[in-house]
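Re-run with default settings, no changes from the original entry. Doing this only to confirm the output is reproducible before filing.
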Amino acid sequence: MPENHKPNSTTKSKAETAATMTDNHIDIDDVDDKNVADIDIEIDDSDDELMDSETAPSSESETDESLKEDIGKKINQLRLAKGYSQRKLAKMSGLTNTSISSIERNKVSPAVNTLKAILTVLGSDLTTFFSDEWKEPKARVIVTPKDLLELNEPNSRVSLKQVYNCSTTRNLGFLIETYQPNSSTEEKIAHEGEEIGTVIEGKIIIRIEESTYLLNQGDSYVIDTIQPHTFINPTDSVTRIVSAHTPTTY
């Protein structure tokens, strides 16, 4: 039968510290199966100056937009190079997960102090960040096991390895997930986007708001990740899942 849970307004990510289920065992027999700034321009009677003033706002706007895109893309590259999830970067820099996501997706431009805080966590600084020597990493075609990025803490019982090839134009994120016996993600994860996955080994319980679903090996799921959800391995065996998500930021 579905279990009642009140949605938590605090959004959480799968990549946060996983909680064990040892002291809170779930009987899987009781679970349903599948259930810009204003620019002041001074104009005189000169035709040449009038022409310049008409084109200046557009040129300035294009420059600002390009700079904003560079900031978001660079932060995303630095974060992934560190193997940090968005939530981990947010926590270490004193920001919210939503703020990091908006900056990386170029929805907002960070203030100088905010950017400095982020770069400090990522082992960089403003001078290096805006240097002409900045080089984008070359996208890989093959991603080997050693190239996978672990988004969870080393001592976590849930492993979330991201398949990252250094591409800045990718449109899809992909995770290889491993759940140790009687482990789970922290309750009520919620993040923008959609996720689809398949259980390739073991069993997994997915709680989505007030509904609970049990998936066996071979079963797949498609969820709107804005809905609070939790992944639980209620068994004494390892569970493995492969999943894809949009947007690519995680």
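Residues 1-11, 19-24, 34-63 have pLDDT under 50 and may be disordered. The longest helix spans residues 47-82.
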